[in-house]
Structure formats: structure tokens, C-alpha cells
Amino acid sequence: MKRQIPLIITFLIGTILIFSFFIPPMEKLEQTSTLFFDVIAVFAFFLGGGNLLRVHFNKLRRRKRDWGFSTVTLIGFFVTLAAGLFKIANPGGIAASPTTEGALLQEIFTYVLIPLQSTMYALLAFFVASASYRAFRAKNREATILLVAAFVILLGRTPFGMMLTGWMPDSLSVLQVPNLAIWVMNSPNLAGQRAIMIGIGLGVISMSLRLILGIERTYLGEEGA
Amino acid sequence: MRRTTIIAMAVVLGLFILSWILRSASYVTVQEHYLIGGLKVTFSAFLTLAILSFLYKDNPFYKFAEHLFVGVSAAFWMSMGFWTTIVGNLVPRISQSLSEFFQVPYQPGSYNFVYFIPVILGIMLLMRLSRNRGWLARWPLAFIVGTTAGLNFVRYLRSDFMEQVSATFVPLFVDWKGVGYFISHFSLSASGQFVAIVANWVIFLGVICGIIYFFFSKEHKGVFGAASRVGIWVLMITFGASFGYTVMGRISLLVGRITFLFRDWLGWIS
Amino acid sequence: MLDVTFGIPLVVLSDVGQAISLLLIGGGLLWIFIRSLKAKEVDRRVVFLFIFFAVAAPILFPITFQEKATPIVKKLFDKVESLPAGSKVLIAFDFDPAMAPEVQPMANAFTRHCLVKGYKVIFMSLWATGQALLTQTLERVVKGEFPEKQEGVDYINLGYKAGNEGVLNVIVTNFRMMFPTDVNGVPLDSTAVFDGIKSCGDLDLIISVGGGKPGIKEWVLFVGDRVNVPMGAGVAAVVAPQLYPYYPKQLLGLLGGVKGAAEYESELVKHYSRFEHTDTPGLRMMGPQTLAHVVIMAFIVIGNISYFIGRRRERRR
């Protein structure tokens, strides 16, 4: 029963959503099911938050390694949650958007979340540069093709490429690096990405069918659990 | 705590306070709450530099920033989800008194009782945190999986398969007016007929050879193997283009952060 | 600012600064090249410092370039330009702070373009962080540059809803079921913007700005292909190559990364003199972008040269 009912739910809801696409009178049922999905998605956020609390309270209680930083996580969590749930300092009051300019939540977003998240991803620029120097080697034909294509794009996507090859006459204009970069993106890149997209699309279609028909059950966890 | 750590923290704190004072001083004539304004920008700069310090090596400042990010991010998404979807979509359908409390328009309806179903499923999802009742979370998980599978099945079939196959059948002879016209107007102009024809041939053959490469049920030998090899070359160009764009993307993020440091924090640029 | 601090004219300071920066970067690359030829390791922190300097120098001493829109950007610009008066355009802010430096300039450019043409603009987001970033655009661009525009009449902010593609699956046939009110609790039926709009099929153009999931792919799959609404996109550079298969049948135009933003901004400035003195972060970022690209290409070349020299030495042994 612990595994049968979820399989029946998956089958029913999946089938409803597939058929509703082709049967317009089922549109209302489709919309309602999707709205249910959206509400449950928010409970998934709460689950994530709850799990975070459990992990860090556990670390704190057992004085595990770096437990002091868990207090930072918990303080940041509770301050932001209070700011968001109670709309602290929100000029518009309870009815206004939680991210109204001047609200504490928006200030936390602007001065804490933005610098943290953008800088984390900005670190990748350094690692890309380091990888360019240390790892990207034209060891074989395929790697050479990859690097040549990368060069064309890197040059073509900056004004430097036009400076280098802008002197070419119109009859050879496809060899101007910016035009070459456009051609690479619109032809071989498009072909390769389309091949990948078709492959992934077929994979998603087959996996969706497997899930709906109950052939794929890994999302239910281990047998006997 | 080690002596070097204490000295480092003292230096950072001193620089933080100095920056706060200088920033606040620059805001005196511009902002009413200049002290808070200065503190906000200084704290943002501190967090930025804390993350960047990871490039030297892992350190307590980076760990502080990383842990703060995790906590703030989780709480932000929870708050937004609550107000926008629970209060915005669920409350107006299930309770008039709650709608009045949250000041959202109540939406009466004969079948509104069905909206208690996602509430029950949502609570069951939270049971995942319990060791004994964790199996209850399978029901809402099944609902999520079924919804995703049902929605994706048709959309991917249409947009990522049928439309893509259809778009691959491009005219292989563009603006064809005969061999004589083609030869007399031959050029490597980017907008010329020859380049357009080559482009379409590359698209048509490239897609077919790329798909052949991914067909692993048959050994890649003979004509099939040759087509697979062409497919790899096309894919290598694709990955090279992706790498070029990835470099551009990552550099842009760094430009954004350095601009913040130089403009908003240090005031070196306008 | 440095010119105020040192009392030197900005133009001279900028030219001198650019020359010094380029000399230092060139010299540094030469040093790395010589070390590589001698098979000596260059510490990765030196590489990090180098890339920092390559990006920081053109920010301090700006190098600016003219940009010309490529066809994939021009098509989207021309579509926005050619819509009839009073058209209804939806702009989705589907991104987070990690993508914002690249895509927020695009979102701001689209907003300016639509408002200056007098279209009714509907703002929404599939990302919680998108709603917060949308607030910045509303404050700085809409209220800051178009104070005559009225919320509810000329534009509306629907905000964020959780559910990713689930949101799109509802609004494709019924907007009000997912968004009964705007972000401030005002019912959609009481707003002039939503007169005559029941679903996404009633819109004249949808522009998704972002690059993650959910993003433009989900918009194309769940909305664009279902109700045949023209779709445009502004995406982070990392994601742009993956969307080319949708162009031009399913996506009529695509802005990829900072270059795309710079091209759109330059078209906007070319067509509308009121934007001549507007901040154009896309165009501004092309200077550091160009220098960083040159440095990265130099790193690849130097790395490969040292690799081949090292391989030859080993073969000789």
C-alpha cells in the first residue's frame, strides 16, 4: 500500500494532464491540478527550510566541526524569515509586495543576497581563466576543432574581431571574424544543439512514460522503507 | 583561536569600521540615514571580498559568507513562496476570514473545498522530516512526479522533437536560379547564396550525423561510423561555441562585481 | 573619482591609464609565456590576479566601442519597434543575482523600448529573486525615467508565483486563475492594462529574460508553441547557444549575454535620442569583456605552446 497508492497517483495525474491537452473540456481539471502542484511546490520550500534547520541544529547540538558557522546560517535564516513573513518595515503594509522598495526583505536581498550570489558565480571567471591556461590542450583533432570554434566565438563576440578582419572586402565578408562567429552559431552550433535537444527530448518523453506507467519507481525510495 | 586568526579578524574589523565611517561621510549630504547607508554598502563589500578571498585559500571569512548565503537564501524563497502563492492563491479560495486578515480578495466557489487537497498533500510532504512518518511524503512526491511527467510528455514531444525535426528540413538550394547564375554570382559574402547553401547543408547533415553519433545500439563502423565521426566534429564545434559563450558569461559576472566595488564602495568611478 | 582626486582631466587620465594597463597586461603575458617556455609552473593565484587586473583596468580607465546589432538581435528589436500602438507586451524577469549583471541591462532596455513606444507592459517572474530584481527596474527605469506612466494603466507588476512550468500551464489559458491580483493585491479586473486579456494568447509579444530553469525554454514549450504568441528572449551567455535551435521559428530573436545587451542598447540609443545619456551597462561592459577575452585566448595559446614544447622534450628523451 505504501508504494501502490503513490504509483496510482502518478498514473492518474499524469494521464489526466496528457489527455487534457487533447480534450479541451478537461482544461479546468488541468488548470486545477497544476494549481495544486504550485501550492505543493511552496511546501517543498518549507521542507527545504525545515531540513536546513534540522541539519544545522544537529551540528550545533553535537558541537561538530565548524558548528560556529551553523549559528551564522541560523541567524541569517531567522532574521530573513521574520523580515519576510512579518513584512518588517514594509512601507505598503500587509497587502503590499514583500519586495517593496524600503522593506527589510528587499534590503536584505539587495545588500546581502545579491553580493553573495553574484560573487559566488563571479569566482567562476577566475577558474575559467586558470583552466584556459592549464587544461585546454589541443591534444587531438576533436579538441583542436573545439578550441578553434571557441577562438572564433571569443574573438567574434568582441569588437576586437572586427578590428582584426574588418578590412576584408564584401566578397569575402564571411571570413570576417564577427560574421564567421554568427555563421558558426547559426549553422554548426545550431545543428549540434538540435541533435542534443532531439536526443534529450526523446529521453524526457520515454522517462515520462516510464514514470506514468510505473516502470520507473526510484522516486519512491527503497523497497521496504 | 590561533594568534594569526585573531590578528586577521582584528585587521578586517578595523578596515570595516574605517570603510563604514568613510562611506557614511560621503553620504552625509546625499542621504538622510547616511550611517545605515554606509553600513549597508560596507557590509556588501565585505561579503564580496569574503567570497573572493576563497581564491587565495579557504578561510573563516569565506565560510561565514557561504553559511550566511545558505540561510538567507532558504528563508527568502520560503517567504516569497508563502506570500505569493499560499496567501495569493490558496487563502482566497479556502477561507474568507483569512482573506480579510491578509487583505486579499476572497474568491468564493462551489468547489473550493478541493483546495484543501494540496494543503493535506503539502503537510504530508513535510512528514519527510520525520523518521517514522517519512513514507507519507511519497503521495505528494508522486503527485509532483506525475504532474511533471504529464506536462513534459506532450510539450517535449511537440517542441523539442517534432518542431525540431521539421525545422531541420531546410531548403538545400537557396534562391536557386540555375548553375550559371550560381557560378556567376559566386562569392564568400556573408549574405551571399553560397554561404546560405553551405549553412543549410551543414544544418541538415549536422543534425543527422549528430543524432547518429548518439545512437549507441549499433556499432559505429563503415558509413555509419563515418557519419558518427562527422557528428562528433559538429558537436565539438557546438561545445567550442558553448565554451566561448561561457567565458563571456563568467567574465560579465566578474565585471559586475568589480564595478560595484569600484563605484558603490570605493567611489573611484561614477 | 580619480580625476577629482588627482586634478587631471578625465580624458587624459583615461588614455594614460589605458596605455599603462595594456602595457602591464602585455608585459605580464610575455612573462607568463617565457616562464612556460622554460617549463616553469605559474601559480594559479598569479593567473587569478592577472584576470582580475585585465577586468579591473578597463573599468577604471574605460575603453568604449560602437556596437552593431547582429541579425538575431535586430529581428527582436524590429519586432518590438513595429508592434501597433497600445500593444500588450509581457516581460518575464526569470533570473537571480547570479545572472543579473548580464541580463538586467537587457530587461531594462526592453522596458525602456516598450514604454517609449506606449505599449502596455505586464511584468512578472517565475523566480522569487526575479520579483526583487524587478522592483529595482520598476524604481530606477519605470518610475525614474517614465514618471508619467501609471501603474495599472500603462504597466502592471504581477510579481512571482511558485510552481515553475506549472504557472505557465495555467496562464496559457487563464491568467486570473494564477494571478487574481497584482503584486500589491489590486484585482486584475480593475486594471486597464488587463482589459481584453484572458490568457497569454491575447498578448502581442512575450519576452523572457533569464537563463536558468524555469526560463525561456519553458516559455517556448508551454506558452509560445501552444498559443502561437511571438516570443523573444534575453538570456545569459552560458545558455544562449542552447536556444539557437528555437530560432527563428519558435523564437523570433535572442539576446545572448552582455554582447546582446550592448547591441540592443546601441539600437535603442540610435533610434531614440532621449536615451543618449541613459546609463548603458551593456555597452560599458564590452571594454573589460574584450580585454578579458584577449587574455583568455592568450592563456590558451601560451598553455598549448608550453604543452607542445614539453611533449617534444619528452619525446627527445
Keywords:
heterotrimer, A: 225 residues, mainly alpha, 72% helix, 0% strand, B: 270 residues, 9 helices, extended
Q: What does this molecule look like?
A:
The complex is a heterotrimer of chains A (225), B (270) and C (317). Chain A has 225 residues and is mainly α. Chain A has 7 helices and no strands. With 270 residues, chain B is mainly alpha-helical. Among the domains of chain B are: 57 residues, no CATH class; 92 residues, no CATH class. In chain B, 74% of the residues lie in helices and 0% in strands. The longest helix of chain B is centred in the last third of the chain and has 44 residues. In chain C, 55% of the residues lie in helices and 11% in strands. A 6-stranded parallel β-sheet of chain C has the order 3-2-1-4-5-6, with helices on both faces. In chain C, α10 links the parallel β5 and β6. Chains A and B meet through α1, α2, α3, α4 and α5 of A and α2, α3, α5, α6 and α8 of B.
Task: Detail the topology: elements first, then pairings.
The complex is a heterotrimer of chains A (225), B (270) and C (317).
Chain A: H1 4-22, H2 27-61, H3 67-85, H4 104-134, H5 141-156, H6 159-165, H7 177-212
Chain B: H1 3-27, H2 34-52, H3 60-94, H4 96-102, H5 116-126, H6 138-168, H7 179-184, H8 193-213, H9 222-265
Chain C: H1 2-6, H2 10-37, H3 44-60, H4 71-82, E1 88-94, H5 100-116, E2 120-125, H6 128-145, E3 155-160, H7 165-171, H8 175-178, E4 205-210, H9 216-227, E5 231-235, H10 240-243, E6 253-256, H11 257-271, H12 281-316
Parallel strand pairs in C: 1-2, 1-4, 2-3, 4-5, 5-6
Helix pairs in contact in C: 2-3, 2-12, 3-12, 5-6, 5-11, 7-9, 11-12
